[in-house]
């Protein structure tokens, strides 16, 4: 089992994370990448890199033959799958072993047993691990599932037996929604995992989601490294994770840790794994699933234990015993992690694509940023929208939380929409600050969806000043020398410049006058005096005497700025330029680039507002395209199987007469 070269069968931040640990212990690291990922940081970090396809995952990161061929070509003796992609694919693990290579992960039998939620649940029941009542039978007919649902009772969860990460999962609260939930979960599961098998479970409403990190070696040792609270979720995907759980007691940790160890022993586990539980207010907990891989949120465990989990994975794969015993494990301080996504929370968390014009990761005491992006890169529609993880550690939970809020504000990506402001707002919630978050936190906080943030007039003025400053610099670069004290000076009275800026459908008219020290800009009924000084890649800004440092840039007619947790992108509108933004009436365009999985409407069909017209897959999730009005489908501009870009016309509806 000895090897000196590891191939990382993954991309982005986790590939970079594994490469760093492998190189730190003297191993060579080989990266694989697509054409779309050719300039990604993990490619540059690796000792060697192999191109394995264009962009789509089915012909690249999910192609086991290409991964194995890359390993053979580079002399790799082991493959680390990271998380996602092939990490929990038992057939891939078997193929790695059959090729004479080491799979850095559990045995294929354990992956297969725990990878199917139905089989895993049966094993856990046999092992005495508490489980939620439900249906995990082999008969997958609608009739049997409907009957089982009636017996379980509402609300219930429909889950992909082979899935995870919120895919193939639906909460059903009304009987009439069950058929649609089964159909959507089946479709999403088949596309994401290659299996449409489902299980049903009684929904445990508003629990905590608490998981236990386990580790096992080939010598019979199985330990746990404490727990992580992952209760803050949207669409069953984690947003915030922390260690330890705010309400954990030594007695409860002991019970959950022992249950997690029994779960691992039930499948003769090897390496790193996570046993996930639902924890209710009475202290009772129920097995949810086991993730037979490294978790996205493993950094919080590393920060409170001081252990390198990737290095431990490699050591176990090389046949070494665990470097620590259960008695050695000590949790120090508190760590919290958030996931920076390319998504728009105010638009139903729709994933976003776009360029990375500027990227700066926060630094400071107790701060760690695991990222897989770089400036100049393009965020593509082919992969998961997670861009980076921002983690803070402190001697107490409140210190870690305060540090993380600052780190979110100081981690800046400009060019692509992200959830930075949303993350800051979640961390600032009183319920979260008190350690009382449950899985329903976001639904309770924003029952009608996350609202769009109103832009402050001072930020509009700032955006205008940045554009005018860029115009001034461009003019100066084409002119002779102009003394600094003559900037903004004119012997005749100056007429104000008029700018029109757009943010989505909003329009802002600005009247700006140049001053020797900067600009005077009027937005609506407010007037601001601004001075800008560029220093070290940032702008030092004074607005009416109030100073702050911001990150900003101007690209053509677009201006991007980051102030605190706000990320603002505005466009300067010019004469002769179309002001049309988005669609009107019954014209439906793609809200993001993606693959059209299903078309449910055709020309002449009568549709009602809210009806599902199509299903679009983007960034590994399925999104329903619904009718904005009631009327008749006049035209369909795409078809199932088509890959479409954001803004492409999909369907036209003629609204019914009032």
Automatic annotation (TrEMBL):
**Biotin carboxylation domain residues:** 2-447
Xref: InterPro entries: ATP-grasp, BC-like_N, Biotin_BS, Biotin_carboxylase_complex, Biotin_carboxylation_dom, Biotin_COase_C, Biotin_lipoyl, CPAse_ATP-bd
Q: Does the keyword Iron-sulfur apply?
A: no
Enumerate the transmembrane spans: none
> Start and end of every Lipoyl-binding domain?
578-654
Q: Which Pfam families match?
A: Biotin_carb_C, Biotin_carb_N, Biotin_lipoyl, BT_MCC_alpha, CPSase_L_D2
Cofactor entry: biotin
UniProt keyword annotations, A-Z = ATP-binding, Biotin, Ligase, Nucleotide-binding
Specify the ATP-grasp domain's residue ranges: 121-318
Instruction: Specify the protein name.
Output: Acetyl/propionyl/methylcrotonyl-CoA carboxylase subunit alpha
Organism expressing this protein natively? Lutimaribacter marinistellae
């Amino acid at each position: 089992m000895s090897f000196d070269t590891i191939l990382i069968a993954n991309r982005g931040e986790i590939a970079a994370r594994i490469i760093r640990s492998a190189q730190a212990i003297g191993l060579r690291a080989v990266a694989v990448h697509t054409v779309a990922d050719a300039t990604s940081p993990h490619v540059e970090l690796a000792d060697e890199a192999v191109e394995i396809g264009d962009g789509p995952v089915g012909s690249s990161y999910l192609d086991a033959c290409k991964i194995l061929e890359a390993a053979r070509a580079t002399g790799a003796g082991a493959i680390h799958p990271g998380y996602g992609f092939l990490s929990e694919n038992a057939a891939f693990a078997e193929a790695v072993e059959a090729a004479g290579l080491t799979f850095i992960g559990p045995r294929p039998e354990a992956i297969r047993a725990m990878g199917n939620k139905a089989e895993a649940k049966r094993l856990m029941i046999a092992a005495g691990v508490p489980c939620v009542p439900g249906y995990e039978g082999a008969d997958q007919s609608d009739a049997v599932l409907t009957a089982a649902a009636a017996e379980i009772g509402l609300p219930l969860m429909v889950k992909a037996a082979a899935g995870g990460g919120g895919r193939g999962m639906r909460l059903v609260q009304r009987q009439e929604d069950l058929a649609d939930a089964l159909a959507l979960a089946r479709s999403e599961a088949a596309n994401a995992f290659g299996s449409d098998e489902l299980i049903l479970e009684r929904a445990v409403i508003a629990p905590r989601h608490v998981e236990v990190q386990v580790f096992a070696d080939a010598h019979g040792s199985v330990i746990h490294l404490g727990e992580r609270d992952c209760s803050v979720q949207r669409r069953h995907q984690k947003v915030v994770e922390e260690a330890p759980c705010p309400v954990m007691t030594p007695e409860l940790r002991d019970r959950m840790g022992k249950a997690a160890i029994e779960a691992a022993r039930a499948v003769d586990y090897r390496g790193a794994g996570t046993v996930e539980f639902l924890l209710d207010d009475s202290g009772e907990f129920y097995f949810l699933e086991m993730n037979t891989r490294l978790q996205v949120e493993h950094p919080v465990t590393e920060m409170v234990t001081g252990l390198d989990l990737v290095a431990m994975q490699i050591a176990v794969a090389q046949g070494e015993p665990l470097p620590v015993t259960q008695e050695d494990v000590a949790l120090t301080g508190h760590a919290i992690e958030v996931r920076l996504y390319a998504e728009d929370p105010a638009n139903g968390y729709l994933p976003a694509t776009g360029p990375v014009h500027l990227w700066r990761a926060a630094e400071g005491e107790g701060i760690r940023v695991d990222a897989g992006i770089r400036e100049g890169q393009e965020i593509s529609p082919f992969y998961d929208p997670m861009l980076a993880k921002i983690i803070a550690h402190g001697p107490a939970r409140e210190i870690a939380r305060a540090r993380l809020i600052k780190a979110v504000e100081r981690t800046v990506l400009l060019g692509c929409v992200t959830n930075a402001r949303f993350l800051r707002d979640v961390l600032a919630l009183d319920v979260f600050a008190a350690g009382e978050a449950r899985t329903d936190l976001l639904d309770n906080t924003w029952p009608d969806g996350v609202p769009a943030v109103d832009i402050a007039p001072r930020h509009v003025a700032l955006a205008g000043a940045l554009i005018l400053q860029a115009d001034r610099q461009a003019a100066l670069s084409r002119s002779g020398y102009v003394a600094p004290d003559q900037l903004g000076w004119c012997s005749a009275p100056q007429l104000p410049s008029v700018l029109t800026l757009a943010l989505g459908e909003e329009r802002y008219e600005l009247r700006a006058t140049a001053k020797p020290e900067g600009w005077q800009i009027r937005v609506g009924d407010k007037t601001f005096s601004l001075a800008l000084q560029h220093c070290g890649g940032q702008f030092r800004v004074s607005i009416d005497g109030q100073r702050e440092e911001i990150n900003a840039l101007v690209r053509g007619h677009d201006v991007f700025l980051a102030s605190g947790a706000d990320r603002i992108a505005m466009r300067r509108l010019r004469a002769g330029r179309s002001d049309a933004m988005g669609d009107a009436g019954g014209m439906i365009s793609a809200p993001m680039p993606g693959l059209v999985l299903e078309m449910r409407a055709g020309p002449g069909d009568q549709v009602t507002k809210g009806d599902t017209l199509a299903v679009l897959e983007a960034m590994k999730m399925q999104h329903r395209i619904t009718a904005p009005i009631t009327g008749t489908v006049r035209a369909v501009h795409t078809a199932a199987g088509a890959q479409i870009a954001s803004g492409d016309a999909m369907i036209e509806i003629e609204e019914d007469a009032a």
